[in-house]
Amino acid sequence: MVDILHRVGIIAPPEKVYEALTTVDGLAAWWTADTSGDTDGVLAFRFGEVGGFDMKVLELRPDTGVRWEVVDGPAEWIGTTVSFDLTQDGQWTIVMFAHRGWREPVEFMNHCSTKWATFLMSLKSLVETGTGAPHPHDVPIGNWH
Fold it and tell me: Hey, which CATH number is domain 2-129, 3.30.930.10, 3.90.1150.10, 3.30.530.20, 3.20.20.60?
């Protein structure tokens, strides 16, 4: 198994970052504008013609973390988990991101790693400035957008 891992510092209190990770409006403002579902059940994230993912919410730890399991989407994603662990360091909230459980490091994983990085920067921008860059306003990087 292989994992995608990222670390991002956001100048904001953890509760503000947590809100962006645990509300439909927050998620739609940094990841994809087409976000729906139940923030303590199953969330649906759609990316137009590219498709999307359904995430089952496994864990909500107020102001410290979120963990999801991919229950629908591309075969490479099914059964993987996505987590955001938050810690405070002075004025910074440190987001330790992990997309764990990839069966093998296929080319799509490289693409997803880059896209996760751009979306994590969108999260940072949203929380710090009030404006994110969710799909379809994100940076296109190739065939899978």
Answer: 3.30.530.20
Point out which residues pair with 36 in neighbouring strands: 44
SS3 (DSSP) at 106: coil
* Predicted TM-score of the model (pTM): 0.96
Summarize pLDDT for 24-33 with one digit per residue, the tens. 999 999 999 9
Where does 12-106 show beta strands of DSSP type E? Answer: 34-37, 42-46, 52-61, 65-72, 81-89, 92-102
Tens digit of each residue's pLDDT (9 = 90 or more) over 44-72: 999 998 899 999 999 999 999 999 999 99
Amino acid residing at 108: F
Give me the phi and psi of 118, to 5 degrees please: -65, -40
